[in-house]
Design a protein that fits this description.
Number of strands: 6
Order of helices and strands: HHEEHHEEEHEH
Bound molecules: zinc ion
Radius of gyration: 16 Å
Oligomer: single chain
Number of helices: 6
Strand content: 25-35%
Length: 196
């Protein structure tokens, strides 16, 4: 739920040109401006309200190479433990990635059901590399390196794709595309809490 004083942004849905344009990079000095700091805070509020585990600036109509990520304990707690184990789900503290550059560390792929806040109520099986490394700027404009595997690596690949105008439907196994309702009904899964 939204906190008092939180700012909720409109999340663009598939078909919006904002989702298909490559986003522009931010200079470190830009990152520290009140405008970008306010955007980061509002994107965090919007992601938690959705709820989601990641949100990229193009999804809120800002063509900037900026994404926020957070996996809260409660997302994971409401999923079956065997699924949490199979997907390698772990909590991830809130963080910001600006101008991220992704390198694949383990090209072996895992296929899991994946959703997107910009394709509300749908999902599909999407192959993603098992381990990645990301170099970026953080919320203060300082360089950071993030190494991730399993589910966290999937979230990073999904968000950084958004910054290039790419959606999971460009990478999915197309015959697995399903409404979340039907995924839950026929594939025995729980689709909640996986959107980004
Ligand atoms: Zn998405």
């Amino acid at each position: 739920m939204a906190q008092r004083g939180s700012v909720l942004l409109k999340i663009h849905q598939v078909g919006s040109p904002a989702l298909r344009e490559p986003a522009r990079a931010l200079a470190p000095d830009d990152v520290r401006t009140p405008e970008i700091q306010a955007l980061i805070a509002a994107m965090g509020d919007t992601m938690r309200d959705a709820p989601g585990v990641g949100l990229a600036a193009p999804q809120v109509g800002e063509s900037l190479r900026l994404a926020v990520i957070e996996v809260r304990e409660e997302y994971i707690r409401r999923l079956p433990p065997e699924e949490v184990a199979a997907r390698g789900m772990t909590p991830v503290p809130f963080h910001v990635l600006i101008n991220p550059v992704l390198v694949v560390d383990d090209a072996a792929t895992d296929r899991f059901f994946e959703g997107c806040l910009s394709l509300a109520a749908f999902g599909a099986s999407v192959p993603r590399a098992r381990a990645v490394r990301v170099n970026a700027l953080d919320a203060r404009g300082e360089p950071v390196e993030v190494r991730a595997h399993a589910w966290y690596a999937r979230i990073l690949q999904h968000e950084i794709d958004h910054l290039a105008g790419t959606l999971y439907i460009d990478r999915m196994d197309s015959r697995s595309f399903a409404s979340r309702e039907n995924y839950d009904r026929y594939a025995g899964g729980r689709s909640s809490g996986r959107e980004s």
